[in-house]
Amino acid sequence: MCAGLACYLSGCSVTQGYPGPRRPRDEVARISRTLHFWLFAAKIIELRTIDGEWVKGGEIEVLPGIHTVAVSYFSDVANFVQWSNELCSITLDMKAGHSYQANGEFLLTENAWHCWVEDAETGERVEGVFYPRPEGSEPAAGSFW
Fold first, then answer.
1. Burial letters for 81-101: b for 16+ Cβ neighbours within 10 Å, e otherwise?
2. Which one has a higher pLDDT value, 76 or 131?
3. Residue 120 belongs to some domain of the structure
4. Nearest to 99, CA basis, from 9, 21, 14
């Protein structure tokens, strides 16, 4: 059971986000959520949609090209809980063979959070923008947003 929980939390399975048979790693791009856990704190940047389609999984493979990724934010620091009411969207050109990490942070001085995606190979960072949650839209099953 502990191994299963660790696997779920770490996002050890990769979800295929394109039609057809699975392609080799050097022909696809991967984007993953952020999970940080400390003694009395946690931060989760969860993948919500890719190109307008709800997704579920810690790491998603997509075909290379321009994609719009929407993420949500959750943090808990010593029972001071914050979460996003709106999705933050990032549009970026994802390259074959590259890995990308969705991230974000809450800014107390602005009472707001912002998000970005970073290319693990180049360090390039693409900032996100906020779009209201589409009326009547539903999150992926089992999500906290």
1. eeebeebbbbebebeeebebb
2. 76
3. yes
4. 14
Work out the end-to-end distance of the chain between its first and last CA atoms, rounded to an integer number of angstroms. 25
The answer to whether position 99 is within a domain reads yes
Who's near 124: CB < 8 A, 6+ residues apart? 118
What local confidence, expressed as pLDDT, does residue 44 receive?
85
Q: Please check whether residue 138 lies inside any domain of the structure.
A: no
Q: Is the pLDDT of residue 2 over 70?
A: no
Q: Which domain holds residue 85?
A: 2-131
Q: How confident is the model at residue 52 (pLDDT cuts 50, 70, 90)?
A: very high
> Comparing 104 with 129, which gets the higher pLDDT?
104
Query: Dihedral of CA 49/122/14/17: which sign?
Result: positive
Query: Rounded to whole angstroms, how far apart are CA atoms 82 and 50?
Result: 23
74 neighbors 46 (Cβ within 8 angstroms): yes
